[in-house]
Inverse folding.
DNA sequence: CCATTTAAAGACCAATCGGTCTATATATCG
DNA sequence: CGATATATAGACCGATTGGTCTTTAAATGG
């Protein structure tokens, strides 16, 4: 292994912005407006970067978008890993997981929608980088849900005839559909009741 | 009531294009590309209209889009009215309805997605004309499904504990979610199996 | 034939798009 | 201090945006 030459300490004016924070701010803009409807000035305003800095740091709009999308996915999967943690009761986990969707779907949260669903609808099939991310996200989500359902089944908590993998596919469709219908800003009451009725079909 | 002066017969070169056909062609473009990503030249190519004719007939891009969206909604609701016709067995109707989604979600059809879902994600919350259409479509869809489920319940074909209205809300989320996941072009086999497993939870 | 009406073709418009580049100010090092 | 490195501000670019307008060809009725 070649000796690692220590990175030369940067001299002069230090980097004064946090790239990760900029990605997160950009994510917020793409989330609210969508990819095509987001213009450079929107991103500059949100990240508080100059054009030059933004292009030096991220290359172009598309690359920055992918960074933002990756961040969004990472946050979502991390949340799922917490909600559906193995050490927790799987049914409680699924309830917590769905409660998160109730939250994100009601009122103003619902209006804002979901960056991932919006991206799937806007870009999937026309942008290979996006395609990969969308497909792998849905697979990851399905796997986590299927795992939780398997554990629930092992604990005898699933309704007779429910098979974890296909139930997981159903559940993924259901929650992503909530994100679509959520754009009409349904009340929390209705969202919660719908989720409860859904779980009643699968949980004993 | 004032005497209706008969509309003066048009003289000169007759209208040589069919506005409804143009709307339908425009619908196809918006459907494939989304609102923002559709540029005027795309619409001119698809409708085979000149710029002048298109603006004279439809006003502007946004108005043409609304016409296209209305057409899309009308087609979808007409199809539902056939599939869920009162004179038909409601369970058969629901199966036919879901079979349509299997078809639209698999492979290339899935990749193309759904104009309504794409529009909801791209424009809802930022375009009042769109908001109204999206909300009223989901309500109309929910009402038709709830009606079919009510008839199924009356015929004793629903699983115990299934309440038609909330089951309809679940089903709407499920099918719209299929449209999202469908962007990853799942196989027909999996889509069909998922739909079957879904119905098994509700139909006795 | 001729008047009238329509559609097509495409020039034209200001505004905005994503992206590059230069000049300047500033912060930190030796 | 002086050299170096970085970020900012904003001018600038060609391409494209949605939209208007003018010119020309064509089709019909009187």
């Amino acid at each position: 292994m070649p000796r690692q030459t220590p990175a030369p300490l940067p001299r002069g004016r230090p980097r004064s912005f946090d790239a990760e924070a900029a990605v997160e701010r950009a994510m917020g803009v793409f989330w609210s407006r969508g990819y095509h409807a987001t213009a450079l000035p929107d991103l500059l305003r949100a990240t508080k970067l100059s054009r030059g800095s933004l292009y030096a740091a991220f290359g172009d709009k598309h690359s920055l978008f992918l960074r933002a999308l990756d961040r969004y996915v990472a946050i979502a999967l991390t949340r799922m890993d917490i909600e559906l943690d193995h050490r927790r009761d799987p049914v409680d986990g699924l309830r917590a997981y769905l409660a998160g969707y109730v939250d994100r779907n009601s009122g103003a949260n619902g209006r804002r929608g979901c960056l991932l669903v919006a991206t799937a609808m806007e870009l999937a099939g026309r942008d290979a980088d996006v395609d990969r991310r969308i497909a792998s996200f849905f697979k990851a989500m399905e796997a986590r849900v299927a795992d939780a359902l398997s554990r629930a089944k092992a604990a005898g908590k699933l309704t007779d005839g429910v098979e974890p993998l296909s139930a997981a596919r159903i559940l993924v469709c259901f929650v992503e559909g909530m994100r679509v219908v959520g754009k009409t800003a349904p009340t929390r009451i209705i969202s919660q009741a719908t989720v409860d009725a859904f779980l009643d079909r699968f949980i004993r």
Observations:
- The radius of gyration of chain B is 20 Å.
- The mean pLDDT of chain B is 95.
- Residues 9-14, 16, 39-41, 51-52, 55, 60-61 of chain B lie near DNA strand D (CB under 10 Å from a C1').
